[in-house]
Amino acid sequence: MQPLIRREEMIGTACRLLIFNVLYAVLVWLTTYFPGLDLLAAAAFLYVLFIWSRRMVENGMNAGRVMATAFLAQLPGLVFSGLALYSWWRYGPLTSYFDFALQMWHTPFLPLLSLLPPIRIQGFPLYFLLGYILSPLYILLMGLFARTLPRRSGNRVKIYRLF
Amino acid sequence: MLKGVQAIPSLNKTYSKRKERRHDPLWLLLLLDLILALFIMGINGYNWQNTSSRVMGQAIKALGQGHLGSGIPSGRGNQLDLSLIQPGDILLGGYDGATYGKFTHAAIYEGEGVAWQGWLSSGVSRVRIERFRHYDRACILRVITNSENRQQAVEMVADWDGQLFYPLAFKPGDRVWNCTKIIWEAYRRLGLELDSGHDLWITPDNLYRSPLVSVISQDGDL
User: Fold this and answer.
1) What domain range includes position A77?
2) Which of A4, A29, B97, B145 has its CA 20 to 30 A from that of B34?
3) Do A33 and B120 touch (CB under 8 A)?
4) Architecture of domain B70-219
């Protein structure tokens, strides 16, 4: 029988994921001072998310709940995306502080975005447009990670508690 | 046989929780951030005496005064004489109340009314120079070198077309840019160090104060 995950635990995990995002954004920004190390840090970010989502599955969450937790953790990113898009719709294509805040929020992905080809769509670079969908992508990714292994399988490699 | 706190279940639980909290990876991550920040500041010559006069100190002071971002336009614009500009010249513009100096934006002139800039929503991209008329203060700087070097600097920046803009980009690296870094890096590769501040970041104000540039034209409160 699967243990029930209480709502408070989900919110607690989401808060920890949110704080992790903020602290990791600072880390990735600092590692950009050492070109190359930033790429390693960004890859490690994805790996930690992978471990974290599997840990949540081990604690009795299904992929849906993992995604719901990731949704809560990505609320700042989703809000910034929404406000930036609203600002564009309302005032035209002017860069707003919400675009800036969105880029800061997604700093953990910055080194990976810098590897994208410098192509433009309707005059906007790919990295900039991707910024708007990174939060939904993050949520989907967490769900995908949670589904990579069957729950409660007896012969899977033990993952030590990281988060 | 259990000893000490382990012998009492409730105390054992509290002890375990405290131990877990002490080894919480989020605290370790915060510690890593602080260590890395101090290390980077250290290798760049930051110390208690000089921090207030450098970019970070000035930014903290400005933030303390409520100056967040690139300032607030007054709407009066400027009367900069754009007819004097030549390819390779640097355009600076700024508003009052910015976090990082009097000037907040920079671009390098290509010719025919077009300059190269770094901008959040367009990356490294072209911009019409008339756009600098909106700033409350603006100036044209000419790097003291021959016209071939200036033309080469423009071509170098053009090669970075569409690359990623990040406002807090540090000086090292060539994947993440801001408006001033593209200009500084292009001239640095030609052997001209335009950073008068020798700091972690290159700001428009540091370009303005460089002994390797001359002011061709300026307007606004400077």
Assistant:
1) 7-146
2) B97
3) no
4) Alpha-Beta Complex (3.90)
